Amino acid sequence: MDKKFYVYILKTEDDKLYCGYTDDIEKRFEAHLNGTGAKFTRAHKPLEIVYNKEFNSKSEAMKEEYRIKHLTRSQKLELINN
Q1: Domain range annotation of the chain
Q2: Contact, 21 vs 5, CB < 8 A?
Q3: What percent of the chain has pLDDT over 70?
Q4: What pLDDT shows up at residue 1?
Q5: Model confidence over 53-74: pLDDT tens digits?
Q6: What span, in angstroms and rounded, lies between the C-alpha atoms of 1 and 15?
Q7: Which end of the chain lies in a sparser environment, N or C, as judged by fewer CB atoms within 10 Å?
Q8: DSSP-derived 3-state class of residue 1
Q9: DSSP letter at 57?
Q10: HSE toward the beta carbon, residue 37, CA cutoff 13 A
């Protein structure tokens, strides 16, 4: 079985959006919840994963993460809602 990679967007308690990538989305979300996921999510408590997309390679996932991080907030919300 090939390893899968995921790009995800979290929504935080203060209505911020955080984008990241991982090979284990549940484990990564738990890390964000307990304060070991990222500096950003230590300051902005995550509520839920509002978007995720699966990729076959780490490279593809990282490229998509980079692309999403450069979107405006309204473009990210459009991505989430579609």
Answers
A1: 5-81
A2: yes
A3: 99
A4: 67
A5: 999 999 999 999 999 999 999 9
A6: 37
A7: N
A8: coil
A9: S
A10: 26
Phi and psi at 6, nearest 5°, equal -135, 140
Place of tokens 């699966």: 54
Both structure tokens of 64: 């998509």
Mean pLDDT confidence for 15-33:
97
Question: How many residues are listed for the chain in this entry?
Answer: 82
Q: How many CB atoms lie within 10 A of CB 27?
A: 10
Locate 57 and state its tokens.
Answer: 């390679």
Nearest CA among 22, 30, 78 for reference residue 50: 78
Write the class of the CATH domain 5-81: alpha beta
Task: Report d(CA 46, CA 30) in Å as an integer.
Answer: 10
Give the type of residue at 64: E
